[in-house]
Amino acid sequence: MNHKVDFYFDKAKSWQKEIEQLRTIALDCGLTEELKWGCPCYTYQQSNIVLIHVFKEYCAFLFFKGALLSDANSILVQQTENVQSARQTRFTNIAEITELAPVLKAYIYEAIEVEKAGLKVTLKKTESFAVAEEFQQKLDALPALKAAFEALTPGRQRAYLLHFSSAKQSATRVSRIEKCMQQILNGKGLND
Prior knowledge:
The protein has seven helices and five strands; from the N terminus they run ααβββββααααα. By secondary structure, the chain is an alpha+beta fold. The chain has two domains: 6-116, Aspartate Aminotransferase, domain 1; 126-185, no CATH class. A five-stranded antiparallel β-sheet has the order 1-2-3-4-5, with helices on one face. Strand 3 (47-54) and strand 4 (59-63) form a beta hairpin. The radius of gyration is 20 Å and the shape is elongated. It starts with 5 loop residues before the first helix and ends in a 7-residue tail after the last helix.
């Protein structure tokens, strides 16, 4: 146990028993406990294996390379259609976790083997993501914006593309683009 992570478990108002059980399972597999993104993260030789996080309706184990796991028990969930690598196992009570403990350990050991083998998830290229028509018009009209956008990392580009295209109405897309243009020109990502 890493005592720097204890606060996460101590502050939990809901799911406390459940996340403590998940912690025990991860530590029983010989993983190193760290605090990343404000959540307990379990690593093998500095590679992220699984993360514990809580939501209103459930708590979860997030397997970083869950897309590469065999999922023989069909317990892994893709959070959204845009999540490419990670997969969650969701829980709503301690009994579910207790019952699945041997399966969860098997998944963790499989995830460790994925890391040992150096396997990587093949991610979609940024070019595969839809570009909102309104954003394409701005890129075509403003060469400086296009150059700044192309200079961003692929992850930052994808974040903007998803943010813009997720708006249902054209007016909302235009508003989002206008709000983000200076940030793109400054070389910043959506959440920087």
